[in-house]
Amino acid sequence: MTADALQETANHRTNTERAMNVPHPPGRPPAAVPPRRSGRFRRTARALALAASLMASSAAVTGCTAPAEALRTPCGLVIDGSGSGASGGRGFDAEAKLKSTLVPFLTDRSCGTLAFAPVTRSSQTSSCRVADVDLDPPADETTDRDSLRRSVRVTAIQGALTMLECARTQGGSDVLGALARIGEAMPSGKETPSLLVVSDFEQADKEFTLRVSEIGTDESRERAVDTLLGARGVPGIAGMDVYPVGYGMRHDAKPSEYRPFDAFWTEILSRRAKAHVHDDYRK
Questions:
Q1: What is the 3-state secondary structure (H, E, C) of 9-47?
Q2: Residue 119 and residue 114: Cα distance in Å, rounded?
Q3: Are the C-beta atoms of 198 and 98 separated by less than 8 Å?
Q4: What distances in angstroms separate CA 23 from CA 11, 19, 106, 150, 268, one per listed residue?
Q5: Mind listing the pLDDT tens digit for each residue in 67-108?
Q6: CA 153, CA 136: separation in Å to the nearest integer?
Q7: What is the number of alpha carbons within 13 Å of residue 44 lying toward its C-beta?
Q8: Considering 70, 79, 148, 239, which has the largest number of Cβ atoms within 10 A of its Cβ?
Q9: Which long-range contacts (CB under 8 A, 24 or more apart) does 22-31 make?
Q10: Helix axis angle, 94-108 relative to 145-167, nearest 10°?
């Protein structure tokens, strides 16, 4: 290489080095060369962004979910402990009917509370007592309300079986007294109470025994109703929704017996007591 060529190369290197060392203008940061990002970094960033998006969507859905509607209906259960409620073909099997209808009743009627009354030889004064159950207890927003309600319904079933067990120790079948007792247990308010009555409605106590053979005519039936209600009065269930279970099962196979039996209780429940009787769970 000639001397002129060597000098030109040296000058080029010097100029390049000077250009690289030129200070940046005041107030302006030097140009930064972005670092190269690996494929792993880019995949991680996308995953984090996706997770954040999903969390935001979940929060939005949770925030928009409507709270569970309050259960407001005051409800009552009458359970028959008389011998006619025995199982094994000897009665209408009060326990089986209780177990099969109580939870559907509580759910269908949106029951918020449940009170209990037994059918015994003297139902109003019976010593059988079970505390009312709150079927919609208060809870914070993090509580699974459906799960909570299911658990208190189990408590309601246990209370009902406890009442049945006690009622069976006292005998007798004062259905009218049980209706009066459950009516008194219902709170006053805007909501109409619903009553599940697990009984065959065979009134039989020391003062009155219902005999179908004695209520075959309108006149005899009227006298029987007046006799039963005379000193006891009409049960305070006016306007309430009554759902019998096991009603008149002893007379099902004999229309000649069922008709006067049904007319007797229709007179008491619908006409005298002014209750609304439904057939949803009758059998």
A1: HHHHHHHHHHHHCCCCCCCCCCCCCCCCCCHHHHHHHHH
A2: 17
A3: yes
A4: 20, 9, 84, 76, 107
A5: 678 899 999 999 999 998 888 777 889 999 999 999 999 999
A6: 10
A7: 5
A8: 79
A9: none
A10: 150
Q: How far is CA 47 from the centre of its chain?
A: 42
Q: Cα(134)–Cα(74) distance, rounded to whole angstroms?
A: 10
**Cα–chain-centroid distance for residue 3?**
103
Gap between the Cα atoms of 166 and 170, Å rounded: 7
Dihedral sign computed on CA atoms, order 23, 24, 26, 30: negative
pTM of the model: 0.76
* pLDDT tens track for 235-254: 999 999 999 999 999 998 89
Is residue 106 within 8 Å of residue 144, measured between CB atoms?
no
The two tokens of residue 223 are: 């006298």
Domain boundaries, the chain: 73-277
Q: Under a CB-based contact definition with an 8 Å cutoff, are residues 39 and 46 in contact?
A: no
DSSP string, the chain: --HHHHHHHHHHHHHHHHHHTPPPPTTSPPPPPPPP--HHHHHHHHHHHHHHHHHHHHHHHHHHSPPPPP--EEEEEEEE-SGGG-STTSS--HHHHHHHHHHHHHHHTTEEEEEEEEESTTGGG-S-----EESS----TTS-HHHHHHHHHHHHHHHHHHHHHHHTTT--B-HHHHHHHHHHHSPPSSSPPEEEEES----B-SS-B--GGG-SSHHHHHHHHHHHHHTT---S-TT-EEEEESTTGGGTT-HHHHHHHHHHHHIIIIIIS--EE--TT--
Between CA 242 and CA 246, with CA 244 as vertex, the angle to 5 degrees is 175
